Amino acid sequence: MDYSTATLGTRVVAQLRDRVAQPVLAIGRDRYTRHDLALGDCFNYQAARRLSDAIAALRVKDTRDLYQHVEPEQLALPQIGAFAFAVLGTCFELQEVGTLDDWVKQSRKKGTPVVTFHTIKAHIAQHTTKTTSKARTKRERRHFATAADDR
User: Fold this and answer.
1) Alpha-carbon gap, residue 63 to 12, rounded angstroms
2) Distance CA 69, CA 60 (A)
């Protein structure tokens, strides 16, 4: 792209060039810039930033390590959606470690059908809600029993 300093100004051009050169996604030691992701027809930079933050907590070495050792369920987090998974699929393809579909298939138990990312998140949310409600019910029962004993 031709950044015209005459039209945009030196400071703006410098900021734009810095922004293009800075990575928007980090997976361990692998860094992906806007240009890298665009090579894979991926333009979801906000999703890439959110994914980068989520992956940092997993402490993986690189994209290959994530592909081999992390299950999709581990990234089914509130700020991570299907677009972020599409970005991750682009990274898998850029590093030539496999495809997004293969990654999901390898984590499924034998005989378990592959489902969409939305279904994975819904299942996790449902499981979390059940666990939370069971714990809440136990707490309420204990509280009720204690209050009845105090009478």
Assistant:
1) 33
2) 8
Q: Give strand pairing partners of 33.
A: 23
Tens of pLDDT, residues 63-91: 999 999 999 889 988 889 899 999 999 99
Question: Burial of 113 by CB count in 10 Å (0-12 exposed, 13-18 middle, 19+ buried)?
Answer: exposed
Token couple for 117: 């990312």
* Dist CA 97 CA 149 (whole Å): 62
Express each pLDDT in 31-64 by its tens digit: 999 999 999 999 999 999 999 999 999 999 999 9
What does the domain layout of the chain look like in residue ranges?
25-114, 115-151
**Residue 88 burial class via C-beta count within 10 angstroms: exposed 0-12, middle 13-18, buried 19 and up:** buried
